[in-house]
Amino acid sequence: MKPQNAKERNIAFIKYILLFIVTTGLIVLAVFFGTRLPFKENAYLRDKIKTMESQIGEERRFIGKMMNVKALIDSMNNPNVNVDYLQSLISSELAEVQNIIPPADTTFRKKMYSSLIQTFLELKNSKHSLIKLKDIKMTMDECSKLVDKYKSDMEQTQRDLDICRQLSRK
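and the corresponding structure tokens:
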């Protein structure tokens, strides 16, 4: 005995199978791309992390060198220090720092590093000028004291001369 709606049942079964295959295919594709894309993304992110770590290493070296330069500039104030030698030492340190900057870097970091190096050069030159001016001021103070002493000596000599003239008239 055959059911009366066998044809409709067969069509419904075929539709069910097609929908099942399409749905299962979509789920399999979603799982496939869901697992495949993170591998590419992870590889991309690993490369980015390596780049960032190398930049951080360069920045740490840069900061370390700049701290050395700052310490040298600060030591210019110490008494009995050869300022000209320190200046040449600071210049060589700044040249080494300039070599740390990667030449292929086109980001804002290169401009920032170059600007910072230029600022430290100007600070070094200003500090040197200030030290020279302190020496000149000390020399001027000494000369001023000598002028005051010579004025008092001259006044004393003038008085003595006046007394000698008065005595010679009498």
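(Above: one complete record from the training split.) Helices lie at 6-74, 83-100, 108-169.
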